[in-house]
Amino acid sequence: MGPGHTLSTRQRDLLDGWLPGAKIVRDHSWGLVGTTVLELVHHGRRYIVKAGDEQDHHLARESRAHRDWLAPWTSRGRAPVLEYADEEAKLLVTRHLPGELVQGRDEERDPEIYRQAGELLAVLHGQSSVEDERFEAEARDKALSWLARPHRITPEVVRRLRAEMESWPAPVVTLVPTHGDWQPRNWLVHEGVVAVIDFGRAAPRPALTDLARLAAQQFRNGPALEAAFLDGYGHDPRESAAWRRNRFREAVATAVWAHQVGDERFERQGHRMIADAVTDYWN
Predict the structure, then answer these.
(1) For residue 283, what are the contacts with CB-CB under 8 A and spacing of at least 6?
(2) Domain 101-282, CATH homologous superfamily name and number
(3) Are 97 and 80 spatial neighbours (Cβ–Cβ below 8 Å)?
(4) Which residue ranges does the record assign to the Aminoglycoside phosphotransferase domain (predicted)?
C-alpha cells in the first residue's frame, strides 16, 4: 500500500496481512462520503478494497449482503466474490469483476441491459420474505426527520409534505432482500452480460423500493427501458398507495442528503423528484 489513501492504521494492517505487497492500480472513491474504494493487484489477480471511516454504516451492510444474499449471483459470475471482511474495522475485499459501468455508456439506453437487470433483481428479491409491522412507520418518521435537517425545499412545499406524511397509514408490508441503489451506476457490462456491484445500502425492504432510482431517472423518459426491465423482473411490484409513499420518501431524502454533502446535481434531481410527485399526486 502506498501513502495518501485514507485508510486507518488498522485497515492498512489488515490489508497488508490479507494481500501483502499488493499494489494500488486505481482509486474508485467518490469523494462525497467517507468510503475509500481501491483497485489492487496481488500476485497477478485484481481485487477491490472498500474501507469506511468512523461514521460509515455501509460496510457492515455490504458484508452481510455478501454473506447472506449474493450466492445466486456470485455463482453465475454476476456479482463480486467476497474474499475478506472485518465489519468492526469497516474493511472488505472482493475479487475484481471485469466490465465497465453501464452509466454513461450506450448500454444505458439498451433495453436488453434492463431486461437482464430485471431478471437479476427478481433473483435477489425472490430468496426470502418476511411480514413486517414497523417498516412503514419507521420510514415515515425517517422521512419527517429529513425535513427537519438543512435543505432548500420551499416552506410551502415542506408544509404540504409534512401534512402528506403525517396522514400516511402504517400497514404491514412484505420485506425482501433489496440492493438499495439499483441503477446503471451499479451495473457492470462485460461482453453483453450484466453484473452488479456496491451493496452498501442492501437491507430488507419492500421490493418496490428498488425501482425508485430507475423510475426517477432512466424510466422517466424511457418507456421501452421500463417495459424491458419489468419483462425481465416478471411483474410490476409497485402497488399504488405504497409506491406513492415511497416516491415522496425518496424525493425528500435525495434532496436533503445531496444538499448536506454538497452534490448539487443530485440535489437538483431530488427537487425534480419532489416536483414530479407533486404534479402526479397533488394536482
Answers:
(1) none
(2) Aminoglycoside phosphotransferase (APH), C-terminal lobe (3.90.1200.10)
(3) yes
(4) 42-242
pLDDT in tens, 171-228: 999 999 999 999 999 999 999 999 999 999 999 999 999 999 999 999 999 999 999 9
Q: What is the pTM of this model?
A: 0.93
Other CB atoms within a 10 A radius of the CB of residue 90 amount to 27
Report how far residue 283's alpha carbon sits from residue 277's, in angstroms, rounded to the nearest whole number.
10
Taking only the tens place, the pLDDT of each residue in 228-245 is 999 999 999 999 999 999
The CATH fold assigned to 9-97 is: Phosphorylase Kinase; domain 1 (3.30.200)
Among the listed residues 119, 114, 148, 110, the one whose alpha carbon sits nearest the alpha carbon of residue 253: 148
Query: Can you say how many angstroms the Cα of residue 31 is from the centroid of all Cα atoms in its chain?
Result: 16
Binned at pLDDT 50, 70 and 90, residue 5 comes out as: low
Dist CA 50 CA 11 (whole Å): 10
- Report whether 92 contacts 62 (CB < 8 A): yes
d(CA 14, CA 91): 8
**Length of the chain (residues):** 283
Cell of 74: 456470485
Tell me if 190 sits within 8 A of 98, measured CB to CB. Answer: yes
33 three-state secondary structure: coil
Confidence of residue 54 (pLDDT cuts 50, 70, 90): confident
The CB-based long-range contact list for 180-183 (8 Å cut-off, 24+ gap) reads 180/61, 180/205, 180/209, 180/210, 181/213, 182/117, 182/121, 182/210, 182/211, 182/213, 182/214, 183/103, 183/213, 183/214, 183/217, 183/218
Nearest-angstrom CA–CA distance, 99 and 95: 13
